[in-house]
Specification:
The protein has 15 helices and 11 strands. It is α/β, with parallel strands linked by helices. Helix 1 packs across helix 5 and helix 6 crosses helix 8. The structure holds nicotinamide-adenine-dinucleotide.
Length: 437
Amino acid sequence: MEKPAKIAPPKGRLGVLMPGMGAVSTTFMAGVELVRRGKAKPIGSLTQLGTIRLGKRTDGRSPLIKEFVALERLSNLVFGGWDAFPDNSYEAATKAGVLDAHHLALVKPFLSKIRPMRAAFDREYVKNLNGKHIKKGKTKYDLALQIKEDIAEFKKKSRCSRLVTAWCGSTEIYLTVDEVHSTPEKFVEAMKANHPAIAPSMLYAWASVTSGVPFANGAPNLTVDIPAIQQLALEHNVAIAGKDFKTGQTLMKTILAPGFKARMLGMDGWFSTNILGNRDGEVLDDPSSFKTKEESKLGVLEYILQPHLYPMLYGKIHHKVRINYYPPRGDNKEGWDNIDIFGWLGYPMQIKVDFLCRDSILAAPIVLDLVLLLDLAQRAGMRGIQEWLSFYFKSPMCAPQLYPEHDLFIQLMKLKNTLRWMMGEDLITHLGQEYYD
Ligand SMILES: NC(=O)c1ccc[n+]([C@@H]2O[C@H](COP(=O)([O-])OP(=O)(O)OC[C@H]3O[C@@H](n4cnc5c(N)ncnc54)[C@H](O)[C@@H]3O)[C@@H](O)[C@H]2O)c1
C-alpha cells in the first residue's frame, strides 16, 4: 500500500457516539472534561502524553505524537450515545462508582446534560440486564435504520463535521461467525428476518459503517469482526477496529509473556482469577457472556508464546481464566495471577501477580486514543480493519490470512511505525550498525 495521499486536517467538531454509557463511557467523558478544564491529567493516553522518535538517535527529534500528526483537540470533542437504561451520564457515573465525589461534583453540570438515546437492546444477548429504555421495531432492520437516523440527527444537532462510534456496551452472549454474516446482502436479509445470529451490537456497527462513521469495538462481541461489515467498511471507505479493550489482567499478560519468551523461559501454566463487582461483572456472571470474554482472554498466550515453534517450552501450558462477580469490590477489580515457569535444566519457579486495578480507569484513555486515531485514519483515507491499533485490544482483528499480534511491544512499534509511514518519515528498525562503521 502506498503512503496515504493526504491527511485531511481536522476541521470542525468531532462527535463521539457510544452504544453503552456505563462505567467506561462515563469515566472517559468525565476525564476528557476534567482534562479540558485543567483539573486532571490524561494519564495512560499515548495520544496525549506519548512522544515519537523520528530519524536517527543522534538527531534528537522526539515530538509529542499529538504534535507530529494532526489529531483532533480535546476541546473539539462532543459526546452522545445510547443505553438501555435512561440515566443521564452523571447518574450513570455515580452508579458506576469509579470516580470520587470530588471529581464527580466538578463535572456534574457537564455529565447531566448527556442523556442516552434509546438502545437497540435485546435481553436474549445480555441476559443479566433488564433495560427498558429501548427502541421498538418489528425487525432488527427497522432498529438499525432508527440508529442511522439517530446518527444523522446527532451530527446535525451537535454541529459535528465528523463522528466516531466506540462500542462501550456490555459483553453479549457468545456467537460464532454464521453464513448470514458472510455478505452485506445476506446480513440485510437476516436483519429483516430477525435472525438470531444478528446481535444488537451488529446493528450499531451496520448503521455506523453505512453512515460513513468509523467504529471501534471495546467488547469481545463479534460486532465488526464479520465479513459483511468488513466488506461494507471497504465499500464505504470507513475505518474499523477491535476488539475488547486491553486493560487489567490481559494487559499484564501481554507485558509479561513476551519477556518470558524473549528469555526462552518455559511455562507449565498460567492461572488467572478476578473478582469484580461492577455491572460488567454482573453481565459476565452469565455463562454465555463469560464465554465470549473467556475466548477473548485465552487467545493471548497461544499467540505470544507460539507453542508450535517452541513445543518444549510452551507445548503443555494449562491456561485458565476465571471471573467472579463479587459486588463489594465495585469497579476496583482484583486480578490475581499464578504463573508456573521453568528455567535452566528445567528447574521450576513461580510468579504471583496481584493487580489491584481499576478497570475503567485503564479503559478510559484507550477510548480516547481510539477515537482520535480512528478519526486520523479516516481522514487519511485508511479503510477497513486498522490492525495498527491492535495495541489497544485483547483480541486484535487482522486480515484473514494473518494471525493476530498480541505482544504489546510489537504492537507499539507497529503503531508508531504506521504514524511515521503516514507522515513520510523513515521507519525505525533499531538496527543502528551505522554508528559502528
Ligand atoms: N472496564 C474495562 O476495563 C473493560 C475492559 C475491556 C472491555 N470492557 C468492555 O467494555 C464494555 C463496557 O464496560 P463497562 O464496565 O462500562 O460496563 P457497564 O456495564 O458499566 O456499561 C455497559 C452499558 O452498556 C449498556 N448496554 C448493553 N447493551 C446495550 C445495547 N445493545 N445498546 C446500548 N447500550 C447497551 C448497559 O445498559 C450498560 O449501561 C463491556 O463489554 C466490557 O466487557 C471493559
